[in-house]
Batch of 4 targets.
Target 1
Amino acid sequence: MASLRSMLVLPALLWFSLDAHAAILTLESSQLEIHFNFAGSQETLVFPQSPASLPVFVSSGGGSFAQPGGLFAGTGSILLNGPFTKVFTGLTYSVSNAGGSFAAGGGPGGGFGGSSSVTGQLRGLAGYLFSVRIPLAPVGVGGVAQTGAATLRVTVTGASGWTAGTVTITAITVAAPGGFANTVTFAGKDDRDAGHRGELWLVTPIRVFSNATTTDFGFAVQKLLFVPEPGIALLFGMGAVGLVVMSRRRS
């Protein structure tokens, strides 16, 4: 009987402890996307979450959480079809995310967000002549990275973090309905409920300057989905049963 009581009481105590400080949710079906306009070609790279399901501790207060590195990663290559393909005919890429922490007030401008770099690189292919490395180190953390090959020079800049708000890139020229635009925006979102379950999009801008093309730009977005952790749901259920049993025995 004592052992049964312990089996019921322990989940109840853990339930209250977790609920007071954090929730354990499952991050699943999430992905990192890199949208970019490079050499006049608009492309999107998608890196699905791996593993497909990952338990995450989420603060019950502001919904803050830590994200492990290597959750999104991939390699590959694409052909470009923009107006500057006389210079750049294709891209190869090797990309992964570094670990980071996200919280209310942690993003640029004070919204929900945080800092986490994207490691790896894009490599612009100039036909069969040579390739130019395009480092991604400033993405998601800020700063400047420069590289080049032959007479080409490339500079990459990033913002100082990710945000669930809206990011804007100005002083560019990009095709738009009815002509051209000099400003582009990309909106994040936080559609999580009071228990921090639901969708969270964190975005960060990218700028690429080259002496061979116009100013190129892009956005990286983490599309995160938080769902209840099955094991914790079972634990909560056992905790509820434990409380009922204890109450009945006292009465």
Target 2
Amino acid sequence: MRSVIMKDLAVCALCVVTAFSASAQSAGDDPVADSKAVVVSGNARFTVLESRLVRMEWAADGKFEDRATLGVVNRKLPVPAYTVKKSGKKLTIRTSDLTLTYSGNGKFDENNLKVTFRMADPASKKGVRTVTWHPGMDDSGNLLGTTRTLDGCDGVKTKEPYDKGVISRDGWAVMDESDRQVFVPVDSDWRHWVADRDSTDRQDLYLFATTRLPSQTSPESEVVFLCLRNMPLATGGAVSGNIQTSSSWGLERRSARWTSRSM
């Protein structure tokens, strides 16, 4: 049963990749987030994209990336309500759904960064579960996505491993863009092409926090669709964008929808 479901997921992911890969970056995309959504603390920058979606950056040189990446082509979203509190070396960002805490000025790790949020959990006594995420946590609950290439694919067996996706039984998923290539303008019909980032030590993470977990008795296919149904609160809108969990993500919002793109 699992192999059939995973195969179906791979096929669905490929279909969505194909549908949204007609162009790398459209004219309506804006990779620069609204300045009101941005909080800088030393060598760290946090961008509140949604009440359950936060971009977390750390750069050794204190210079942050505003260009589109192969994964994310649009960050100009309506700014959700949030508060910021600084106390000594401690920074706290609160939205209606999560609390992010960062201490000091160092590279993100389990000691200086955490995000706490609540979500519905049918398996818990009160029906609600509090989740605390920090860098380096086990993400074995991630439902994965597709692989870089489906050439030579035989069911769930692929030449290269499946990448991490943004749907998880853990209730959270992290998209790591730290080493992802960026788009640069070129004088051609493409208008943009890809280039490697510089060699600066940096982290560029997107944390997706979902709203609920399925019950322990849910079949695996139900787990997927429960996640899909509730991820819009974490990603701003559409189911179509959430089923694609490929190696190359693009996030954009049009008509209150998130979609995904792949090169």
Target 3
Amino acid sequence: MHDQIVMTESMADTIGKPFWHIHHDTLFEIAAYSIKTRIGWILGNKPDHEIETRLRLLRPIQGEFPKDVLCAYGAAQDARRSSEAAMQATHKPCTEYHYELATLSNEAESYEEKERVYTGSQKNRTALGEAYDLSITKMHAAADTARDVKQAYEEVILIHAAEIEALHDLECPDCPWNGSTIFPNGADTCTTKS
């Protein structure tokens, strides 16, 4: 039954486009990856009793969608990516700093030798520590920005909630969405809103 799903040309280029129910617990999302990939995931990983409902409700938004919601979503995604990049950027200075500390005592046998190695590498440790501290500061700043931008996005969604829900009702008249999930009874047997 599920092997007869045909991707239309309009669904092939879906990244950045709004869709209803990419995930069961989200009314709409902007596709961050190809919907073809999502369909493959559903077919290969979701319980059989959920597949029909998931695929039936996963559809592109056709009507006029609030532009400021799309803009706010884009800003939230950019801030999230910046936050993730800042987190990744902490790995190198962290590793270098801790490697320097760990190898310090292994390089010398006697106390005098350890003292010499310690004094000689102190400048390097200071520079590495400063780089590490700076990367952590940048990571926290990026995370704070991502949180604030996400909150602003959620506020824009609230402003347009009635408009979005009306569009959803028009485009998905057979949808069991209850405000939290497309599976309000824990299965795909519900065909009306609760």
Target 4
Amino acid sequence: MFLFDGPPHGRLLVLAHGAGAPMDSPFLAAMAAGLARRGLRVARFEFPYMHARREGGGRRAPDREPELRRAWLQAIEAIQAAEGTDAPGGGALLFSRLLAGLLYETPANQVGTYAGAALLLGGVALLATAFPARRAAAIAPALALRRE
């Protein structure tokens, strides 16, 4: 099942839902409508686990990455057949491949990647605490106590 938005002959963009919301969620519908207003033809589809949930199967965890990739490629082929178009562009497949690599293919022995992520997150935490602490340190304690 697919949902289409936008002009019939616009450039095709295929969107899939996230892990917790279906393809007709308000966020994805608003995103598709906004892209359609810009002249894109937007096709939305659901992965098999979400389709089973919609059919009354209850809440399920997302499928494994190979099944999600297979469903993604099948959806692109089905949309191409329905729309009579060629591939939606190498950019979409390249982006999905890059995202899959970032999410699923970081081996446990890549110490540099995990150390970099830890340093980045630690830096963000330090910056988030440094600004309020600096502002609080600028206040004279005697002045603060006098006002109370």
